[in-house]
Amino acid sequence: MVAISSSTADSESPNENRESYRLCENTPPFSLSTWEDWKKYLKKATRRITVVQQPLERFARSFRKICVQDQKCYDCKDNVACFMRKLLKDHEKLAEGLEGTVRTFLTDNFSPQTWNCHLHRDLHNVKILKLGGNGPEKLEFARNLNVVLNEQGVPPELQKIVEKEVMKIPLKLSDEEKKIMETVKRDEDLWRLFRYLYEHDFTVFGYKL
After folding, report:
1. CA neighbours within 13 Å on the CB side: how many for 47?
2. DSSP sequence for 3-34
3. Is 153 left (phi over 0), alpha (psi -120 to 50) or beta?
4. pTM, to two decimals
5. How far apart are CA 78 and CA 13, in angstroms?
6. What is the 3-state secondary structure (H, E, C) of 53-106?
7. What confidence tens digit (pLDDT) does each residue in 65-94 have?
8. Is 129 strand, coil or helix?
């Protein structure tokens, strides 16, 4: 979630902080987790936007980085089916309140995007911006973002900087990530499990299954 309430901007480049993608992650309201705390900061002039990715592409990118490269996925290594089943069990516990409201490292990184940013409470007041991996998709995202920035009084020269930085974001799907996507869609049982967890994201954000 990004909240834009004025024309102020930080001089730090978004691409200098790729680990978190949050230039203000330790600053309220970005550091607040409860809806009650969030409401204290929301004003009529505040524009809230949420950046989303195509759910299967997002899963493939995260799986390659966290599971294949870092090997932090339930000892499943590169076994997508093994990981998906264990991930679903953790999410079911979280959804039923059996694990409280605190997510694990994996549920935090792999939870449906509709579970974030209090979207279940206030979706109609949030601008959804889709960020894709290829050049045209990133350019469309940058231009849509600049529409919001312009409405909030951000100077044109800063909008150009934002667009330039967006185009540098390394989101192009690798061959390995494409194979992960194919693995999920090709296996009927695995595709069913994937849809069970992420189908709401496709529906809410307007992506085709």
Report:
1. 17
2. EE-SS---SS-GGG-TTTS-TTTTSTTTT--S
3. left
4. 0.77
5. 33
6. CCHHHHHHHHHHHHHHHCCCCCCCCCCHHHHHHHHHHHHHHHHCCCCCCCCCHH
7. 999 999 999 999 999 999 999 999 988 877
8. strand
The amino acid at residue 54 is: Q
Of residues 60, 38, 63, 57, the one with CA closest to residue 48: 38
CB 3 within 8 A of CB 41: yes
**DSSP reduced 3-state for 131:** coil
Beta-carbon contacts of 82 under 8 Å, excluding residues fewer than 6 positions away, are 74, 76
Structure tokens that stand for 128 in this block: 């959804």
Q: Label residue 104 by pLDDT band (50, 70, 90).
A: confident
* φ, ψ (nearest 5 deg) of residue 129: -115, 125
Instruction: Tell me the pLDDT band of 130, cut-offs 50, 70 and 90.
Output: very high
- Where do the structural domains in the chain lie, given as residue ranges? 57-122+173-209
